[in-house]
Fold:
Amino acid sequence: MTEAQQHIVLETKNLSVGYTSKKGANVIANSINISLHKGQLVGLVGANGIGKSTLLRTLTTVQKPLQGDIYINSKSIMEYTTVELAKQLSLVLTEQIASKNLSVFELVALGRQPYTNWVGNLSDTDLEIIEQAFQYTNISALRDKKCYALSDGQLQKVMIARALAQDTDLIILDEPTTHLDMYHKAYILKLLQKLAKETGKTILFSSHEIDLAIQLCDAMIVMSSTEVISGTPCQLISNGTFNTLFPEDLIAFDQTTGRFTVNK
Amino acid sequence: MYIKYTYPFLSLIALLIIFFFVNISLGSVSIPTLEIFKSLVGNIENESWQYIIQNYRLPKAFTAILVGSGLGISGLLMQTLFRNPLAGPFVLGISSGASLGVALVILGSGLFGGVFASVLTSKWSIVVAASLGSFLVLLAVMIVSSRVRDTMAILIIGLMFGSITSAVVSVLSYFSSAEELQQYVFWGFGSLGNLSWNELLIFFLIYTAGIVMTISSIKGLNTLLLGENYAKSLGLNLKQSRLIIIIATSLLAGTITAFAGPIAFIGLAIPHMTRQVFHTSNHKILLPAVFLFGGIVMLICDSIAQLPTSDYTLPINAITSLIGAPVVIWLLTRKRKMFF
Structure:
């Protein structure tokens, strides 16, 4: 591993996530120690309701951690201002964008907001980076289309291009493959793999596509009801981590093929 | 990338100038067009014509432009802020709030009686009451909308404020005199022609404050098109931007209602008409376009209200409703294409 690849972009130290209510803290997951390196594609997997979204919401400062710290490029995320953080971390969320009357170009260009002046004028550098985002995601043909005219798969590519235009070291995507057909699921994840490799950005996504994630990710974070484990897909397979993912009455993980099979 | 908007903008500016002249040419006293031009450069022989143009028609035409553009822009701000294509000063109950303030002052003054009453019904107390009323309603809508995520609920709450207003007005009118009632009803018709140059100046200053705040929010408004979570992830200070947009809206909608009465549908319809023409949601384009569009439509509405060649003047509020309501119905029936 070269020195550049060893650079840690996102690190959590003894993080616990959950909700605080009047009755006290409701801990969803604790002792989370993960570190994501530069240029890695990292998949976050776990059963429904296990707390993937809560973890992502905490990592993206939507909610506060119950305990522990989160560091982006060795600086605690609490110490970043919103604009500074916007230059470090970009998001692709599950929620729909509010106005679909935007053109694809306008939407991708909004990714430059943290860098533009008070009225949002695009400089030559901004235009160059937007152009690169179009190239990487292969959506140049969609440039002048309105967002309401796009299919789910196209829109997801556009949202990824917008995150790229934000030019951050870390991109976090919340379930980028839901609502997509099998081809587009593979397409989007393959695209993320290519982007991590070619741009050196660290990409973290949550997904239910465990098979695909095993094949494409550099590292994976597996959330089960008892613990949060991270490692390379190979390590996780040989440690038998995937077996703990679901109750074993219905599906089981086959270590030789790297897939889940239905018990017959 | 903005070159394609040059012609639409030039045409709108031309239309604004044309309808400005059409507007000051029309009125119950007919003045030849040539004399109108002469009066504008200041050498006209007929002194009464000069007086009519300088002290009545010109301030009225300027008021029309400020009212139309201001209402259009406040509607645009609310549609973006509330992520709802049906938002507007009238629908969200802001005009109702102003009406309630004015009703309390005009109709309620009888309850206070004496010298106090004459102070209360002066023009300025009406302006203050309307501004306060609209600001309070907007604040209430804002507080509700921060708790209720459902934007439909916010619109229903706006409607409820309308009902409360009309209920309070009914109660008050039961106890008030015929003159007071008449004064309130006439205020409700809306009027562009009651402003002196001094009043127009104050109106213009507050309007400018609202516009400056709006212009400073252009970037934030564009970011809000993605939704609040994305806006925050792009480094937008949500609380601050929201507050600035709210204050700008209540300054614009509040003072307009105060000076010109509750004018319906312009705030809701103008931004949609503009989007139909310019096919964009980019506020850098929409703001100046809504300004021009709002001014033009209001000048047209006022020209129609003059009932050219007759001595009558129709209530401006009726004209804007006659034009605005069909636009809203048309938007609703084409719901698939309704964007903001």
In short: The longest strand of chain A covers residues 8-21.
